[in-house]
């Protein structure tokens, strides 16, 4: 790993030499937080008012931005004369755009990959489920304007995996892209197979261009999950797809002759647990630019085009199942752009039977934006959050953050017609405007018998909104299956802030460390496996629990099974969806400001909400608890792509004495050799800041 441990500066204007050192305690007590990052007005919208700085930033990067097409939210007052079809970042290795195959938007999404099998047998004996995936770099126009993409089997979203608990998943991955990749199976415990987690730089080095690798792991839980690339920022280019897993104990399931009238107890009554159709909806934001360029602007000294240093690049599109629309009036001159029309002929269209119950599984596979989901004329009964089945809640809409999943049941009891399934892009994390971005995206749900040319009925404001947001997770979302949180015997405190590193680049920090995995000569797990890493003494007297800080990485270690409370103090003005690999933690506490403690959270131990992605609002804290009994090295990180790209990741090393029992064999070491050769030839791609003098 390359982890820069320079203290985050108290002002963006300070140079590395001007930054004064502070102890970890001074950061934890929040005494310096107000100056760690310049606060925009209003603070919860992250809107920049530094007009002069923005103009200077635009001047510095205009040439590069125009070369990137729509330019990461660059306001198109002066349209580019170049054709977006041929514009790619000069950072990206490999074929030029003219050499890449073009896939038209109507061929990106495969409806069969977004519909679950109605005859699925969740009681079937365990079996091997084998998949062959080819990853390529292509051109396509998912939102109407041609852009460079990275896809699996030329699908966007990528192929569906559907399986039962006990099944063995075997995925042969052939990387034909000019950049490395890895595949992470989001939310999977991987108990006994940490090496299959797919986290580049941590559990593997990645899959180098022109090479192949096979993932082989066994399903251990059920629910709605997803898979995605976990190498650098590349999942933002299109490498993601649904992962739907079934179990015998699922409470909500599709109707078949054996269970057509099943009900379950809920809140003192009974509710119907069956449904007639099971559909997948992947929503995501996307950038016109290549993901490496987006990451470069995230850490840039100048900030992204249109923003300041520290501003997250604002996306250019919102998409539902791979399709969306743009503001064609602001597209660069000479660029083809598919405009909106009343029928949304190229929006994602699907058909439902009348007077039935349809399960819709929503997955936010995006990079930065949350979405507000609603269906014109229809309420929704929410039944699942991040694979945890919950007591049903009737809502009119809900917000879904990056990497989260929600399932709802929709009654098709309205007049036969066409209705919009809306995914509104939320701008709470946007520091500047992108007029090219169309905020209101939607798919079209048509009842059977309705003509494909029938436009959706306009009925956006259909009743009182009940937002299922993270603030409701510990109060309104209640797991159906009761699991009480055990008492904890270890506490770790993590402090989140942002600032400059010793090289004046913008980075995110956990306890003054920022993580960069792509330059690693060897993955964390392999270092532990072969005992090549220097052992550090456990700091058992620290108030933050037993942990050590390696000079190159931050790892919290437990050498015996413990029940760990983790307190995350967010000193940033933005909200962060955090994800813990290898576990589904209990959410046991949250509050505004800096966590003061101590607390044993005894009042939240009775069946607390469990989920693998949970948010920490601005200037707030959250506490989660997990039983640290799954041997391996497990990342914990913010799932916003720009924040991962600038280092907001740390690791939990669980039961290191058992790590040598994992099956880390030669393919992992040959992976590292091939990826390291690629890294040596492409260091600028991984370290560039997007500034003209750094290109």
Automatic annotation (TrEMBL):
Keywords: Copper, Glycoprotein, Membrane, Metal-binding, Oxidoreductase, Transmembrane, Transmembrane helix. Residues 1-40 are annotated as: Disordered. Gene3D superfamilies: Cupredoxins - blue copper proteins. Belongs to the multicopper oxidase family. InterPro entries: Cu-oxidase-like_N, Cu-oxidase_2nd, Cu-oxidase_C, Cu-oxidase_fam, Cu_oxidase_CS, Cu_oxidase_Cu_BS, Cupredoxin. One of its GO terms (molecular function) is copper ion binding. Residues 140-248, 279-449, 547-657 form the Plastocyanin-like domain. It comes from Mycosarcoma maydis (Corn smut fungus). Residues 16-26 have a biased composition (Low complexity). This is Cell surface ferroxidase. The chain crosses the membrane at residues 49-74. The keyword Methyltransferase does not apply. The keyword Protein transport does not apply. PANTHER family: ADR239WP, MULTI-COPPER OXIDASE.
